[in-house]
Amino acid sequence: MTQVDVLLGLQWGDEGKGKIVDVLSPQYDLIARFQGGPNAGHTLEFDGKKFVLNTIPSGIFNEKTMNLIGNGVVIDPIILKRELDNLKKAGHDPVAKGKLVIARKAHLILPTHQLLDAANEQKMGKDKIGSTLKGIGPTYMDKTGRNGLRVGDTTLPDFKERYNKLVEKHKEILSHYEFEYDLTEKEAAFFEAVEFIKNIPHVDSEHFVNGYLKEGKTVLAEGAQGTLLDVDFGSYPFVTSSNTTTAGACTGLGIAPNKVGAVYGIFKAYCTRVGGGPFPTELDDEVGETLRQVGHEFGATTGRARRCGWIDLPALKYAIMLNGVTELIMMKADVLDGFDTIYACTHYEHNGETIDYMPYDIISVKPIPVLKAIEGWKTDVTKVSKIEEIPAKLSEYIAFLEKELEVPVKYLSVGPDRVQTLELI
Ligand code: GDP
Ligand code: IMO
Ligand code: MG
């Protein structure tokens, strides 16, 4: 029997998961998204084309790979339909090719979930989470509150009644906010999209994935967001509403912990965050602006400017521990090409102490990063395609990270395109 490999982000999301899942997909029979929803924006580039996927797993461009949207994902039928329509226009039709299935236990995002998200964020004002406003939090609330609607419910004769019952509840909650809304158009689009997603095969992800394993086939679980946005272990309440960690792959697909194989932890050579919340190494200056411009750090889903800063080793060590990372993947090394000196945060000064972990009171008391200066490589690495061509200073940076993090770096990414990827070990 085979095991499920897991690929997930070790920072605050947007590490480059989409690109690497696409690169690795020829090695796998099945790619399975296990949590999150269309708050995700996973970018892939190849043959001069660029795609951003929100709900669909990043294995769809590989001819032989099957793709599953797992039970832990929350699905907005309108967005899923739009994604598939756009792909079809670009000549890719995973549904027609039988390469996409969805879990019937995945929960549905209703138009009113989005309204609740927006009303809540508006009320929070300057303390808002900075949600992508896709209705993620309210949908997971209905899931754990045992009120939610699931993909499988769309085929039941009383789906409309169930929908109306939940929407009435949402309208009651919305009446307590000063929030104007008009549901008519969204509701029509929702029901049209619900009909559309009935054409995608519905499966029980737990049987589907375990069936693959039993047949000796290979499976890669694709994470969304990042470890530091995990609802339990992230910088709460500035987090998303799902478990973004390896444990989330078990509940989000229906696999036992002993079925987890390799865990690929992906991180940028620096660090970004979009939305509110603590970010100890944030650079609110020209250097941060340079990282943003050179790295094109603008959200794939919302277009918002991402906050930028130096790599944070205490945060990465925490993420590695939580996920049981077996191999690291370092992204966007090329963004640091022009720097004379780069920095890595090795510790924090916090409440008069030097610590190397993320403190509980990280929101009320900002930790001060202790930075180590590292000489830059000052070389364009975007065309580097062989290990021998990697500049010595970049190799030293990687070796330094491996020593600190105690996990080897297996892949190095030097540009957004599929081909700009090196296998180091
Ligand atoms: P994801 O959410 O983790 O899949 O990441 P996003 O797609 O939101 O953000 C990653 C961004 O970096 C995308 O625009 C990618 O095209 C781009 N990217 C990925 N790897 C590299 C790299 O090695 N170098 C550069 N310059 N860009 C990269
Ligand atoms: P990918 O998969 C980066 C952030 C939002 C906000 C917080 C909560 O592309 O890495 P939510 O919409 O979940 O209620 O927002 O989480 N966030 C992300 N940041 N990448 C993502 O996904 C994100 N998904 C959510 O900006 O701060
Ligand atoms: Mg993204």
Can you summarize the main beta sheet? 10 strands, mixed
Helix content: 25-40%
Structural Rg: 21 Å
Mean pLDDT: 97
Strand order of the largest sheet: 9-7-5-2-10-1-11-15-19-20
Question: Alpha-carbon distance between the termini?
Answer: 25 Å
Give the overall shape, derived from the CA principal axes: globular
Residue ranges: pLDDT <50 for 5 or more in a row?
A: none
The set of bound ligands, ions and cofactors reads: guanosine-5'-diphosphate, 6-O-phosphoryl inosine monophosphate, magnesium ion
Range of strand content: 15-25%
Total DSSP helices? 11
Per DSSP E runs of 2 or more residues, the count of β-strands stands at 20
Structural class: alpha/beta
Furnish the topology, listing elements before pairings.
Layout: E1 4-9, H1 17-24, E2 30-33, E3 42-46, E4 49-53, E5 66-69, E6 74-75, H2 77-89, E7 100-103, E8 107-108, H3 111-124, H4 136-144, H5 159-174, H6 184-197, E9 202-203, H7 205-214, E10 219-222, H8 246-253, E11 260-268, E12 271-273, H9 286-294, E13 307-309, E14 311-312, H10 313-323, E15 327-331, E16 341-350, E17 353-355, E18 368-375, H11 392-405, E19 409-413, E20 421-423
Parallel strand pairs: 1-10, 1-11, 2-5, 2-10, 5-7, 6-8, 7-9, 11-15, 14-16, 15-19
Antiparallel strand pairs: 3-4, 12-13, 16-17, 16-18, 19-20
Guanosine-5'-diphosphate binds at residues 9, 13-19, 40-43, 45, 295-296, 300, 331-332, 334-335, 413-416.
